[in-house]
């Protein structure tokens, strides 16, 4: 495991950029600081489409949650939840299923503080400290177990955490542990940036995020490499695709040249 993965979390420092707050800036939010905006602008200078990618990834998650509710899923575990935005998982799920239960997991103190304040009076939603690289600790959390019955199907939503975790930390194993721990009929929703159609920006962007995260490893992946996260699961149609192609509300929105390079997929754990 890398040094960054071992490093304990502490009170946040507003002078140090943070991935969650950078994403908040990309989405037009106000929960960010000067250091976050400076780092985000460096990203946008390399790839201006990143702002659209953040919005499209958020929209994909909303469509995926609506699909899962339609498939009978009533409970959700959201890893790397990010700062509260519009169309959070619990909001989308509850718009269709008022009794839906949702647990958000994050290891960033800013995210934890904001999410807990927002959801303090919601007894069907919880916010726990956890990370995809520590799946057993996450699933053993008493607050998670209060709301989530792991003997019944659950949707595990991993918004973007995996794209920042290098192979040295073996995120594939962590996802496999989660897969093996949940009941048959459960689903996984995974989003991940790839560089297949923009290989020239991979190096510069990775350098920016390595400095933000305090890491030396390269976590960039191709679509073929991202497919490994779905090993042992059955991808639902249309498979792992660029997010705006995943069951779009308006098929016309997928026409024209692909301008963003976030991919997403939804997969089911089969019976038996």
Q: Can you offer a commentary on this structure?
A:
The protein has 272 residues and is of the alpha/beta class. The protein is 38% helix and 14% strand. One of its GO terms (biological process) is methylation. GO terms for molecular function: methyltransferase activity.
> Measured on Cα atoms, how large is the radius of gyration?
17 Å
Largest sheet: 8 strands, mixed
Q: How would you classify the helix and strand content by structural class?
A: alpha/beta
Shape: globular
Q: Please provide the count of β strands.
A: 8
Could you state the order of secondary-structure elements as H and E?
HHHHEHEHEHHEHEHHEEE
CATH class: Alpha Beta
**Uncertain regions: pLDDT < 50 for 5+ in a row?**
1-10
The rounded distance between the terminal residues' Cα atoms is 32 Å
Proportion of residues in helical segments? 25-40%
- How many domain units? 1
Number of helices: 11
Provide mean pLDDT, rounded: 88
Helix and strand topology:
Blueprint: H1 3-6, H2 19-26, H3 34-46, H4 50-70, E1 75-79, H5 89-96, E2 101-106, H6 109-118, E3 125-129, H7 135-140, H8 142-147, E4 155-158, H9 171-181, E5 187-193, H10 202-213, H11 223-226, E6 234-235, E7 241-242, E8 262-268
Parallel strand pairs: 1-2, 1-4, 2-3, 4-5
Antiparallel strand pairs: 5-8, 6-8, 7-8
Keywords: Methyltransferase, Transferase
GO molecular function, one term: methyltransferase activity
Pfam families: Methyltransf_19
């Amino acid at each position: 495991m890398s040094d960054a993965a071992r490093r304990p979390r502490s009170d946040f420092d507003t002078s140090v950029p943070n991935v969650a707050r950078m994403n908040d800036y990309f989405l037009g939010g106000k929960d960010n600081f000067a250091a976050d905006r400076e780092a985000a602008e460096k990203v946008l200078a390399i790839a201006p489409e990143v702002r659209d990618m953040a919005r499209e990834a958020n929209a994909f998650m909303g469509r995926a949650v609506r699909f899962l509710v339609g498939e009978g899923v009533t409970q959700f575990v959201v890893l790397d939840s990010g700062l509260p935005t519009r169309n959070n998982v619990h909001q989308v799920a509850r718009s269709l299923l008022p009794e839906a239960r949702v647990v958000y997991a994050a290891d960033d103190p800013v995210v934890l503080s904001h999410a807990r304040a927002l959801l303090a009076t919601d007894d069907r939603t919880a916010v726990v400290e956890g990370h995809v690289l520590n799946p057993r600790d996450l699933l053993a959390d008493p607050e998670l177990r209060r709301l989530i019955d792991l003997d019944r199907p659950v949707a595990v939503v991993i918004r973007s955490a995996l794209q920042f975790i290098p192979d040295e930390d073996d995120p594939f194993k962590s996802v496999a542990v989660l897969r093996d721990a949940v009941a048959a009929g459960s689903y996984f929703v995974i989003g991940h940036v790839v560089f297949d159609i923009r290989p020239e920006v991979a190096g510069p962007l990775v350098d920016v995020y390595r400095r933000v995260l305090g890491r030396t490893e390269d976590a960039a992946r191709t679509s073929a490499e991202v497919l490994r996260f779905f090993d042992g699961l059955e991808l639902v149609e249309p498979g792992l695709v660029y997010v705006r192609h995943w069951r779009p509300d308006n098929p016309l929105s997928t026409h024209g040249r692909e301008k963003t390079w976030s991919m997403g997929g939804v997969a089911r754990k089969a019976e038996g």
